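Help needed: design a sequence for this.
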């Protein structure tokens, strides 16, 4: 299926060349870093712990779910901690995000976090969750060593939540957010996807609600990563539209802080009198891509390296882990996989405005 995305804004690129600078010769490939051919360095590791999820969000998963991985296909606690160890010690990884599917579905989640924390006392460890069950697990996650948490919440209305997620868990998510705040998993960030005709009018109310509770809201453009493959460009609520909606009630000023490869563009939010109320972020992966500054490397739940969220190329890492190979071999496979990272969104020639071949797998199978 062909979908239409925006053209990445690449510093120094001409209008006819959507490249990320010049190609770095292989001889200059640094042995101690996850460097790609265009000079980008991956320092942000995202590991999916499981592909299963207890929601069925329309922008991610079909109503009946997906064929789940068998337990033996998933990376084990020991394999996950080894990957993190090699990444930090040998390859320059500086922060870790645990994702899914829904990571809290994994029964040994607390043990995984505790094992990583025991080896890396200063490592920022965050987790993205739908919040279902967080009210009973927040304290255990904090005690195990989780630094902060991102909770997905797209609406403030229970009936819209049920329409979007195909589940009636709205009160549980709110309780989970309150629990995360109570135990100090701060900053607690809220991820929201606006869908045209469903919740596209909720930008202002969501931000007002988040600011009142000391939450950091992140709007994420709807990406073509749904398993049903029903994404269409015309249905996208763009970053520009979100900014316009928010500006009807708030004043937004681009944050002076450098993004340092972060996917969200942050804005300082003030009221009419100029009083600062907080911040809001917008992740415009589709209409305002940030490929040139990407610092992410992803490992799927079954141990495959994905250098780009939109790439169809997946490099096997689990076979190295289970072959008896040493850490040097593991690091080399990882480096080789990242070296061939495409310029932009899975296409080595860049993204043309009118064509882009979407990846085969959905967000839940890849791991956000």
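Sure. Designed sequence:
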């Amino acid at each position: 299926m062909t979908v239409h995305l925006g053209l990445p804004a690449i510093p120094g690129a001409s209008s006819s060349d959507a490249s990320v600078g010049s190609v770095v010769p292989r001889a200059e490939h640094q042995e101690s870093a996850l460097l790609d051919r265009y000079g980008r360095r991956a320092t942000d590791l995202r590991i999916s712990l499981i592909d299963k999820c207890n929601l069925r969000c329309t922008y991610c998963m079909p109503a009946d779910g997906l064929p789940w991985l068998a337990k033996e296909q998933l990376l084990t606690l020991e394999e996950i901690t080894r990957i993190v160890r090699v990444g930090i010690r040998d390859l320059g990884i500086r922060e870790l995000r645990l994702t899914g599917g829904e990571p809290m579905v994994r029964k040994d989640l607390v043990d995984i976090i505790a094992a990583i924390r025991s080896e890396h006392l200063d490592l920022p460890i965050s987790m993205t969750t739908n919040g279902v069950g967080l009210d009973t697990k927040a304290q255990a996650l904090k005690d195990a060593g989780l630094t902060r948490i991102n909770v997905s919440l797209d609406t403030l209305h229970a009936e819209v939540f049920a329409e979007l997620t195909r589940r009636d868990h709205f009160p549980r998510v709110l309780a989970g957010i309150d629990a995360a705040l109570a135990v100090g998993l701060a900053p607690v960030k809220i991820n929201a996807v606006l869908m045209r005709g469903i919740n596209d009018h909720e930008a202002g109310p969501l931000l007002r609600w988040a600011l009142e509770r000391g939450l950091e809201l992140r709007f994420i453009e709807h990406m073509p990563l749904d398993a049903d493959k029903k994404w269409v460009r015309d249905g996208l609520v763009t970053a520009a539209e979100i900014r316009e909606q928010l500006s009807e009630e708030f004043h937004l000023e681009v944050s002076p802080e450098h993004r340092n490869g972060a996917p969200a563009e942050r804005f300082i939010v003030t009221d009419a009198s100029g009083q600062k109320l907080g911040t809001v972020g917008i992740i415009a992966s589709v209409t305002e891509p940030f490929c040139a500054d990407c610092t992410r490397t992803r490992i799927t739940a079954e141990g495959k390296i994905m250098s780009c969220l939109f790439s169809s190329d997946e490099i096997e890492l689990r076979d190295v882990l289970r072959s008896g190979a040493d850490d040097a071999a593991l690091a080399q496979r990882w480096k080789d996989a990242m070296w061939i990272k495409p310029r932009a969104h899975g296409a080595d020639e860049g993204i043309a405005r009118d064509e882009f071949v979407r990846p085969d797998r959905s967000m839940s199978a890849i791991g956000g």
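Residues 77-91 form the longest helix (15 residues).
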